[in-house]
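Board work, copied verbatim: Ribosomal protein eL8/eL30/eS12/Gadd45 domain-containing protein
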Amino acid sequence: NADANADASASVSASAEDSIRELELELEVGGELGEGIQRSVSKALNECVGALVTRLLFLQKRAYRENPVKNQSKKRLLFGLNEVKKSVRLGKCKALVLVPNVETGVSEIAETARQIVRGCLDKGVRVVFALSRAKLGALVKRGVRMSMCSVVDYSGGEEEFKRMLDTARELSRPPAPLSLEQEEEEEGEG
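↓ predict structure ↓
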C-alpha cells in the first residue's frame, strides 16, 4: 500500500512538472521562466501553501465578523482571474499561488493566466506552483475549483508565508551537479 501511495505521489509530481514546463513554453520568455519560479511541486510545499491560505482566510473571516465595512478594504487573499489580475496590475500582490493544472483547454483562461504570470515576472512578484484546482477550492470552501490565489496581505501569517517562499525557492534551484564520488557510486550501482 505504501508503494502505491509513493507511485501515485510520483505520478502527481510528474504531471505537475509537465504542466509547469508546458506553461513555461507557452509564456515564451526566452525559453525559461524567471528565476523566482520553481520547477516542481512537493508535498511539503503543498502543506506550506495550505497552511498559509487557511491561516489568512481565518484572519480575513474573523476581521469581517468584527467589522464588515472595514474588512472590505483589508482583504488578505483574492481569488478569481479578474481579482488576481487587478491585484497584480495595481502592485498589491505579494505572491501568486498558481495551480499547475490550470485549464489550458479554454483559451481565454489560459491567456489570462499567462498575462497574470507575465505581470508577476515583470513586477518581481513570487509565483508559487502548488496544490490542485480541487484542493485550492476545498481550502476556500466555496465548492468550486480555483486556479489561482493572490496573497495581498500576509500580516498574521508571516511565518507561513516565509516558509512557503523558502520551500518554493529550494524547488526553484537547479539540481546540484553530482560530485565525482556520487557519480562513481551511481556507476557502481548500475
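Confidence is low (pLDDT under 50) at residues 4-11, 28-33.
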